User: Fold these one by one.
Assistant:
Number 1:
Amino acid sequence: MRMEPLNLDRKGLVKLLALPDFSPIYRKADQVRAAHKGDTVQIRAIVEFSNYCRRQCRYCGLNCKNTTAERYRMTPEEILACANMAAEAGYRTLVMQSGEDPYFTPQLLGELIREIKKTGMAVTLSCGEMPYAAYAYLKSCGADRYLLKHETADPEIYARLHPCGTLENRVRCLCDLKSLGYETGSGFMIGLPGQTLETIADDLLLLEKIGCDMAGIGPFIPHPQTPLKGCPAGSIELTKRAVALARLLLPDINLPATTALGVAGGESENDIFSCGANVIMRKVTPDPYKQKYEIYPAHFEKTDIPAERAFLERRIRALGRIPL
Ligand code: SAM
């Protein structure tokens, strides 16, 4: 049965998000994914190299007001050893993520990028907001992509949850990254207090406006040492709906099954591949750091880079998709 063309403006998106039966939209998103991205699932390694953060994002366990967090910084040697192991295990991309940690200056990050690029892997950075000149310098050192979620497109919710920043500056960063030629990733959380279906529609439309190449959409998960500790977690169903609509709105972008979805939704991390997603990240952060990168409470198995990659490849093949 052919579907009527979908209305993907703000009103149309709100209506779709609220549908009693979303299954035809999931099917459509899966078809669009297959037509535009093929059947591969890109597996990307992520190393969380520092959990120091100067910011106070009210939902995040890394915020500097959380005095119970055990802080760590990986040494450059540890980061490079981890990168080499990821490359040997078959990863083609290393995502370098951290809190906003001024210890890792653009110069230090640049040296690390140059070394990591020697492995042949692409480098994605996810280290927060920086001035244009820093992003430009890191690009000149070989960084390929940058992930910086806009978190919420509602300026009031943004201001309430981010005492240290503005939505305007977040979007300025994303536009700078795009103009510098980075493959630019944004994204947002589902279930932040005050969020409505209209906010989610605005989030989706902001991805389009920025011209994102990638979007990470994941559920909010409350962390007990943050001001949002008593708030309910974001809905898994709504997260999947937002991913499917992102695929319809932006057919060519990369859409990861976010780690938060895997943590909160268990098996939903698998279903998300039939809702439009085509990317997954795997933590290669060594122990004991992995468990200390606690943006939300989660239990992660001990790090075994080759074994975890092989396991994930089998899971992806079992879904009829091709791991890359
Ligand atoms: N400092 C970098 C930045 O600001 O983009 C990267 C690190 S930050 C911890 C990575 C992402 O974690 C954020 O973009 C946010 O969406 C997500 N995050 C933080 N706390 C979360 C929570 N409680 N539930 C779900 N996602 C969360």
Note: The chain has a mean pLDDT of 95.
Number 2:
Amino acid sequence: MAKSERPSGAHPTSPRGNQTRASEPADPKGRVLVADDEIALLRVYKHALVAAGYAVDLANDGAQAIELVRLTEYDVIISDISMPAMDGLELLRAVRSHDLDVPVVLVTGDPALATAMRALEYGAYRYLPKPFGLEQLTQVIDSAVLVGRMAKLRRRALEIVGDSNKQVGDRAGLEAAYARASETMWMAFQPIVRSCSGAIYGYEALLRSNEATLPHPGAFLDAAARLGKQRALGRAIRDAAGEAFAAAPADAFLFVNLHPHDLTDSELLSPNAPLTKLASRVVLEITERAAIEDVGDALACVAALRKLGFRVALDDLGAGYAGLTAFAQLEPEVVKLDMSLVRDVHLQSTKRALIRSMTQLCMEMGRIVVAEGIEKREERDVLAEIGCEMMQGYLFARPGRGFPTVQW
Ligand code: G
Ligand code: MN
């Protein structure tokens, strides 16, 4: 149902009653929802806002407010901070799971710096300590309406231009999006094949979710980092990958991406973790994009992982800024060449020469080379001729549910 089609029974009866529609301006400047547990105050707000040209809905607690937000698109929401059952900050968070942009103005009779800061951190548009003049209120609402409209336009522009990293506005919106992403998270698997035969060597587990505002794993992981939930997400990924892999072909390896951050999580070494139980079949990918030097005892941790039976791959080689320190320190059993190196390798002789040298060096050191992101037959043929042992990319199979079959 479209938000503007409100069923007639949906309005709370008290305190708004049936006179609401009658006293609304004919062509309102916008629609405002006011939530406050003091009914007398609600009437005052309403009177002032209707006089200023707004259509106004009232709610005398958070639950009623959320009910209305579900059915109606508001231009601004005003809420008292202290209300029984659901306070203004909780209301703000609940609002963000329905509307990422609507400005929320929080008012309070008990201004405390800590609450004010939390209100702003969670994306309240303004924090108004009582008492304030009605003129001040209408000024704040006038500007909030414009800001809210701008936010909606900006989101539409982002959808067109496609910078999907920046779609979730404030912290409350980010939390709501992150919660939805976590609920719908699943692991895709992409085959890694042997260059000589196309036989399966292993599968890389790749994070996926059905949350539209965090449309790729990078956005999901960034959201976790911004919310301080990196460690929890890392665990969820490893557990989900380990559990899903129970259904994989018997002799395949499982490749799992780790953030250097995950190396400091004691759970990583837990004998009871689903992944630890599979350790001898697991290759942990550590990216060259993030600086491993920043993680205090990363090397001790990698040594402990090897004791448990894990192998290590250096991921995204060629895409990092970090020189070869990670390569030297990690002593990876597997090296994954970044797709930026692989792309058009048949057309660019410098790339070809570089990959040839890297591959030869790896072979001399007994490391396995996986070329990532292969999309074209010409790339595959050149890489096979150079001697890359393993390959991965859309040309063979896209990441997908279960264990996708290979086109060879
Ligand atoms: O950083 P890492 O190498 O783990 O990232 C792998 C990412 O690359 C995944 O998100 C996966 O979906 C994507 N990917 C895998 N194969 C291809 C490919 O052939 N082309 C492109 N463009 N992306 C790929
Ligand atoms: Mn990877």
Note: The chain has 15 helices and 13 strands.
